[in-house]
């Protein structure tokens, strides 16, 4: 379980103004917890904090608990949390397949077959030899999500992962991502502006 306990957060250049105060919520294994809110309310900043990404421009207090362990100040590599950021960063000098191979743990055998299966499920196998600059925004978003899932994280954070997809693609890909999260029984926090991301699967949600 992933738990946020009494978390308050703000920007250092506005020391008397909090983005939010005393935030509390729990995300159980296999649960997709959706956070809604207008731009500028600190949703992405919150995900960065949970992931362990250092942010020198904020002040905060509270606790981040993962599997009953306080990871508030644990380094990012010790948390085991996958993160799909808004920037959708892929290694520009790697092909799609190489980006996905990079994410796979060493323990996974037959890595190329494993990747083929994933790409087939989302109808993207024809992209495997392309470089990031050759992908559309929607394709980049889906590959970034696949890479995060292929790293077999213990929890996953998704920042507007479906925003650049057309409605038909969004519905199909969202179903795939939700299925993977539930089958792996890992907690997920999803930041979104689309109410269907919650209504689609009767997920828990929070309005910031």
One letter per element, helices H and strands E, the order comes to EEEHEEHEHHHEHEHE
Strand order in the sheet with the most strands:
6-7-8-3-9
User: Structural class of the helix and strand makeup?
Assistant: alpha/beta
Specify the number of helices. Answer: 7
Tell me, what's the shape?
A: globular
List the helices and strands and how they pair.
Elements: E1 2-11, E2 18-27, E3 32-36, H1 43-51, E4 58-66, E5 69-70, H2 76-79, E6 81-84, H3 96-103, H4 111-121, H5 137-150, E7 155-159, H6 167-184, E8 188-192, H7 196-199, E9 205-207
Parallel strand pairs: 3-8, 3-9, 6-7, 7-8
Antiparallel strand pairs: 1-2, 1-4, 4-5
Helix pairs in contact: 3-5, 5-6
Quick overview of this protein structure:
The chain has 208 residues and is of the alpha/beta class. It has helices at residues 43-51, 76-79, 96-103, 111-121, 137-150, 167-184, 196-199, and strands at residues 2-11, 18-27, 32-36, 58-66, 69-70, 81-84, 155-159, 188-192, 205-207.
Structural features, described:
The mean pLDDT is 91. The protein is built from 7 helices and 9 strands. The chain has a 5-stranded parallel sheet, with helices on both faces. The chain has helices at 43-51, 76-79, 96-103, 111-121, 137-150, 167-184, 196-199, and strands spanning 2-11, 18-27, 32-36, 58-66, 69-70, 81-84, 155-159, 188-192, 205-207. By secondary structure, it is α/β, with parallel strands linked by helices. 33% of the residues lie in helices and 25% in strands.
């Amino acid at each position: 379980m992933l738990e946020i306990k009494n978390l308050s957060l703000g920007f250092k250049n506005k020391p008397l103004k909090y983005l939010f105060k005393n935030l509390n919520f729990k995300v159980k294994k296999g649960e997709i917890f959706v956070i809604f809110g207008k731009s500028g309310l600190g949703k992405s900043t919150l995900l960065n904090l949970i992931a362990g990404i250092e942010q020198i421009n904020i002040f905060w207090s509270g606790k981040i608990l993962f599997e009953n362990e306080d990871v508030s100040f644990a380094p990012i590599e010790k948390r085991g949390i996958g993160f799909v950021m808004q920037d959708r960063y892929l290694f520009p000098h790697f092909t799609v397949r190489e980006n996905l191979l990079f994410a796979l743990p060493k323990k996974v055998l037959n890595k190329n077959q494993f990747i083929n299966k994933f790409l087939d499920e989302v109808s993207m196998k024809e992209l495997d030899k392309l470089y990031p600059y050759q992908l559309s925004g929607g394709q980049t978003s889906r590959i970034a999500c696949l890479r995060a899932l292929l790293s077999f994280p213990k929890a996953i954070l998704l920042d507007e992962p479906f925003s650049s997809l057309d409605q038909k693609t969004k519905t199909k890909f969202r179903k795939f991502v939700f299925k993977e999260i539930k089958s792996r029984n890992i907690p997920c926090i999803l930041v979104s502006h689309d109410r269907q991301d919650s209504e689609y699967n009767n997920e828990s949600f929070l309005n910031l």
